[in-house]
């Protein structure tokens, strides 16, 4: 019976067995939905400076502000409704994480597969560079790049991509190298298909499983990295508060007991990252042939 | 003559997510001192699991669920792990297929032999070294004293397997289970190892169970053959007789498919069909779907037929002179 | 063996040379280095004067050459902001970071491997599942948040540990260390915990994965078949086999920990080089940035070299050149 089911269905069936992973997946989808629809569901637009009043600043959860609505999670030092800010913050975090992750995926995979296919000096050179970069911590690289390129979404994403493409490159390279030796590749190369087409249509699909695993980890990592950079004041500009920035804004107030300004955005961030990692873990376990007994 | 090993109706089942796999279902045989028994079958026949069961090393979710394994009269089934461990390596030992995998690449031969020795005995460093050199000599490793401090990768394939065999000989066990020990080696080395093992069995009086899928290798070594299919023993008897005059159609099929038996220029003979999945075995004789002699009666469990030191499980045994 | 060492040393040298070029170009060639030193209302003359004094009017390759010559003599220039030799600046803050990083990573490895091996050996026990749950947390949660929570719990709510700063120091071997005093220990506990959390999670996962895989191999089966006790198998076979991936990660993570110290030092106001670099980046104090990057690169190269050498010691196949 199981032979007639598609690989996706079988994958999903096994995935379903881990209740925790399913829960995590639901959480991720939910958060993405929140982020996507944020502009429509938040009580207050945190970017609109007109709506902010310092009278509302640093109030606790449940406070009814000058706008006439309840601030369920309190307000931040600028008077922003924390709930709205968190939703928008999620939006930015997810957007940047996805963008950086996907671009790094494409770039890294291209480099990795190209290196595996090209062989010879090109291959050694490329992979040396990749290895060097891998041993250099992403955060340092991102820090320096952001410092040099300045602040802004584009610069931030570029820095993240530069810091992360190496993981994809190494994974794609390893997978492609393994596949390259297999007979079906030799067979495909003997046909009139160009090398590029062979790489694209044959090597690529077989490299996908490990790349998917790396992608989930890297997206979570990008989100975490962005938050850290913002926390340090080197991420996005103050006008577009990401979760990291919200947390850093609230840091000075923690000592005086106004914990909510930092904690709630932090909780949202943690839930997002942990959920993505749990899903990624499950995917990785399912793709690992050596644990399948 | 003493029975060193007496296996009665051994059953080892695996409770997997997809169902119960009856890997070993009712296997019985016995082993005399110094005897070499060949256990033959395709992959999935249960021969390796039988070997592991004897040592109590079946991986989860597998378990011995029935039968007896009498080693020198004592039943190993149901014995505590501690007591089993005391016997492993000392009274019964096992050799695996690929010495590259069984020997730890990061430890010297000396260390690995020492660990095996100290598992059952307290010995001084000098005594350990002496014993190691003694067994290495026995298996034909030249200049053993110098090679003790070598690492596994510094030996050739055949030598590595000899080292592994040496480790099993350290405590002079009464039974050695060898699971495809020559399959990973070059053909020329295979022959060497085979003759070495035969010599060892004779010299030390160690009984051996030689597990293999290769009928040709086993037949040159074993005095008795046990043919397994789908977890059951389908034929048993002295090697020469079984090969010359098989009772079970599967055995005949195995013999016919040997490349040596093929006429030059003729296609190799194959047994039609494939080994059944142990999750969905047919009722009655498991070989029936592939058997050219099968009939309706084969839907019932075949009876055990015995005569003059031979046994078979078949409704239509071959070459039987007396009417059944 | 000697050939191996020489080969690695040469590689290290090449890498350092390449890094020096990259760092130099990256830091000095992008943007205008002098902007921060010169007040906006300065005249053209003053501007030109400063540029000339700092040698920034020379062609790039010449600047690089001067840069390298100075570097080799240990002269990293002067900080634009503090106006002291950079090396002095860094050397003064180094012990603080060093003790933080070392304590973190050693405890993370020892604890992590122990817990991870247990989780891998008995994967279905409740303790193992709890260990894995914690490791997912440690792996995912950004370290700055762990720091925040630590401060919130221990410093603000429970009030048992200080929220920042370094404790009393004792001079040892000419350097001042704080972990030798009780006060120092109380100050270093939270930041070290913060820094170690991520590494701990990583070590646990690594040790667990490695243990699970290794316990299924024929090596272990053969050892069991020889009657060797489980304890011995774990200690003599597993530990040896698992040391290879653990050491790789240890080496990699040593550098990464140094990088993450940046965040921890910021949160806990720990006076180390991490905080220094953040401040330097924010104000674009380029000599300090350059020095930090070069030194970090040097450290990385040294760490990689050491790891390679340790490998050669553990795995005899590498020594023989076979692997």
Describe what this molecule looks like in 3D.
The complex is a heterotrimer of chains A (293), B (324) and C (323). Chain A is mainly alpha-helical. Chain A has ten helices and two strands, in the order ααββαααααααα. Chain A is elongated, with a radius of gyration of 23 Å. Chain A starts with 6 loop residues before the first helix and ends in a 6-residue tail after the last helix. The model of chain A has no long low-confidence stretch (mean pLDDT 77). Chain B is α/β, with parallel strands linked by helices. Chain B has a domain at 3-32 and 41-81 and 176-184 and 210-323: P-loop containing nucleotide triphosphate hydrolases (Rossmann fold), CATH 3.40.50.300. Chain B has helices spanning 47-55, 81-87, 99-102, 109-118, 125-138, 144-147, 157-169, 187-204, 215-221, 239-244, 249-256; strands spanning 3-16, 19-32, 36-40, 62-71, 74-75, 92-95, 175-179, 207-212, 224-229, 232-238, 304-307, 310-313. An eight-stranded mixed beta sheet of chain B has the order 6-7-8-3-9-10-12-11, sandwiched between helices. Chain B has a four-stranded antiparallel beta sheet with strand order 2-1-4-5, with helices on one face. With 323 residues, chain C is an all-alpha fold. Chain C has helices at 2-29, 44-53, 60-72, 86-121, 126-140, 143-157, 182-215, 218-225, 230-267, 273-283, 286-314, 316-319; strands spanning 170-172, 175-177. In chain C, strands 1-2 form a two-stranded antiparallel sheet. Chain C is globular and about 85 Å long. Chains B and C meet through helix 2, helix 4 and helix 7 of B and helix 8 and helix 9 of C.
Let me know the average pLDDT of chain C.
Answer: 79
Could you tell me which chain pair has the largest interface and how many residues each side has? A-C, 40 and 44 residues
Which geometry of chain C do the CA atoms define?
globular
Physical arrangement of strands within the biggest beta sheet of chain C:
1-2
What is the highest CATH level, the class of the domain at 3-32 and 41-81 and 176-184 and 210-323 in chain B? Alpha Beta
- Describe the biggest sheet of chain B? 8 strands, mixed
- Strand segment count of chain B: 12
Helix content of chain B: 25-40%
> What's the total count of β strands of chain C?
2
Q: Which percent range describes the beta-strand content of chain C?
A: under 5%
Report how far apart the termini of chain C are.
Answer: 13 Å
CATH superfamily of the domain at 3-32 and 41-81 and 176-184 and 210-323 in chain B: P-loop containing nucleotide triphosphate hydrolases
């Amino acid at each position: 019976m199981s032979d007639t089911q598609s690989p996706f269905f079988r994958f999903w069936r096994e995935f379903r067995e881990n209740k925790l992973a399913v829960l995590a997946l639901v959480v991720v989808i939910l958060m993405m939905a929140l982020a996507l629809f944020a502009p429509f569901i938040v009580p207050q637009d945190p970017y609109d400076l007109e709506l902010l009043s310092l009278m509302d600043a640093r109030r606790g959860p449940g406070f009814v502000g000058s706008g006439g609505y309840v601030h369920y999670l309190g307000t931040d030092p600028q008077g922003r409704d924390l709930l709205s800010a968190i939703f928008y913050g999620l939006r930015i975090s997810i957007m940047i994480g996805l963008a950086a992750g996907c671009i790094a995926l494409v770039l890294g995979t291209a480099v990795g597969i190209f290196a595996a296919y090209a062989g010879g000096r090109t291959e050694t050179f490329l992979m040396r560079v990749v290895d060097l970069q891998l041993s250099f911590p992403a955060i340092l690289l991102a820090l320096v790049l952001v410092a040099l390129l300045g602040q802004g979404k584009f610069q931030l994403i570029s820095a993240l991509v530069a810091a992360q493409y190496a993981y994809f490159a190494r994974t794609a390279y390893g997978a492609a190298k393994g596949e390259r030796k297999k007979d079906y590749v030799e067979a495909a190369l003997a046909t009139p298909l160009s090398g590029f087409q062979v790489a694209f249509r044959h090597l690529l699909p077989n490299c996908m499983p490990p790349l998917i695993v790396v992608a989930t980890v890297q997206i979570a990592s990008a989100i975490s990295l962005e938050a850290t950079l913002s926390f340090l004041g080197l991420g996005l500009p103050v006008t577009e508060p990401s979760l990291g920035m919200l947390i850093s804004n609230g840091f000075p107030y923690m000592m005086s007991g106004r914990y909510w300004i930092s904690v709630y955005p932090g909780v949202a961030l943690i839930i997002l990252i942990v959920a993505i990692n749990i899903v990624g873990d499950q995917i990785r376990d399912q793709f690992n042939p050596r644990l399948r007994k | 003559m003493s029975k060193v090993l007496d296996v009665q109706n051994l059953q080892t089942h695996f409770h997997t997510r997809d169902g119960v796999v009856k890997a070993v279902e009712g296997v019985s045989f016995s082993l005399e001192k110094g005897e070499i028994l060949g256990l033959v079958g395709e992959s999935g026949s249960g021969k390796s699991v039988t070997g592991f069961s004897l040592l109590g090393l079946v991986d989860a979710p597998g378990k011995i669920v029935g039968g007896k394994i009498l080693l020198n009269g004592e039943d190993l089934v149901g014995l505590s792990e501690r007591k089993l461990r005391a016997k492993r390596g000392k009274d019964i030992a096992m050799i695996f297929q690929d010495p590259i995998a069984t020997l730890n690449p990061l430890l010297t031969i000396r260390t690995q032999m020492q660990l095996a020795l100290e598992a059952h005995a307290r010995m001084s460093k000098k005594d350990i070294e002496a014993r190691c050199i003694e067994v290495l000599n026995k298996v034909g490793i030249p200049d053993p004293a110098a090679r003790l401090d070598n690492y596994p990768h510094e030996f050739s394939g055949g030598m590595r397997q000899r080292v592994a065999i040496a480790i099993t000989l350290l405590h002079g066990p009464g039974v050695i289970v060898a699971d495809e020990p020559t399959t990973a080696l070059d053909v020329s080395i295979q022959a060497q190892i085979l003759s070495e093992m035969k010599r060892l069995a004779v010299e030390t009086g160690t009984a051996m169970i030689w597990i293999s899928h290769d009928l040709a290798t086993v037949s040159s070594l074993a005095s008795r053959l046990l043919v397994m299919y789908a977890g059951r023993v389908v034929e048993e008897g002295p090697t020469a007789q079984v090969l010359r005059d098989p009772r079970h159609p599967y055995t005949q099929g195995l013999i016919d498919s040997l490349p040596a038996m093929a006429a030059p220029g003729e296609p190799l003979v194959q047994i039609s069909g494939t080994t059944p999945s142990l999750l969905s075995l047919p009722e009655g004789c498991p070989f029936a779907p592939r058997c050219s002699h099968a009939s309706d009666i084969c839907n019932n469990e075949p009876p055990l037929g015995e005569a003059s030191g031979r046994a078979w499980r078949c409704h239509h045994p071959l070459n039987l002179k007396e009417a059944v | 063996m000697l050939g191996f060492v020489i080969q690695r040393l040469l590689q290290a040298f090449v890498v350092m040379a390449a890094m020096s070029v990259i760092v130099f170009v990256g830091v000095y060639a992008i943007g205008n280095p002098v902007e921060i030193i010169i007040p906006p209302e300065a005249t053209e003359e003053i501007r030109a004067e400063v540029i000339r004094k700092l040698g920034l009017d020379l062609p790039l390759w010449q600047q690089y050459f001067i840069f390298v010559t100075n570097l080799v003599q240990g002269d990293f220039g002067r900080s634009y902001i503090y106006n002291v030799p950079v090396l002095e600046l860094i050397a003064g803050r180094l012990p603080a970071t060093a003790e933080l990083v070392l304590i973190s990573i050693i405890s993370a490895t020892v604890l992590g491997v122990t817990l991870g091996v247990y989780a891998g050996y008995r994967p279905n026990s409740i303790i193992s599942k709890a260990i894995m749950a914690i490791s997912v947390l440690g792996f995912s949660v950004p370290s700055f948040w762990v720091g925040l929570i630590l401060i919130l719990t221990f410093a603000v709510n429970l009030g048992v540990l200080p929220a920042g700063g370094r404790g009393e120091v004792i001079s040892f071997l000419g350097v001042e260390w704080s972990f030798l005093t009780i006060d120092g220990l109380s100050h270093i506990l939270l930041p070290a915990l913060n820094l170690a959390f991520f590494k701990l999670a990583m070590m646990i996962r690594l040790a667990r994965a490695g243990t699970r895989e290794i316990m299924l191999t024929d090596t272990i089966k053969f050892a069991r078949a020889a009657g060797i006790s489980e304890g011995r198998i774990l200690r003599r076979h597993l530990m040896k086999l698992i040391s290879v991936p653990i050491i790789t990660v240890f080496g990699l993570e040593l550098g990464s920990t140094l990088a993450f110290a940046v965040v921890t030092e910021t949160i806990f106001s720990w006076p180390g080089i991490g905080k220094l670099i953040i401040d330097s980046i924010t104000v674009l104090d380029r000599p300090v940035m350059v020095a930090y990057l070069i030194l970090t690169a040097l450290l990385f190269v040294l760490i990689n070299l050491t790891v390679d050498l340790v490998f050669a010691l553990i795995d005899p196949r590498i020594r023989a050149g076979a692997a």
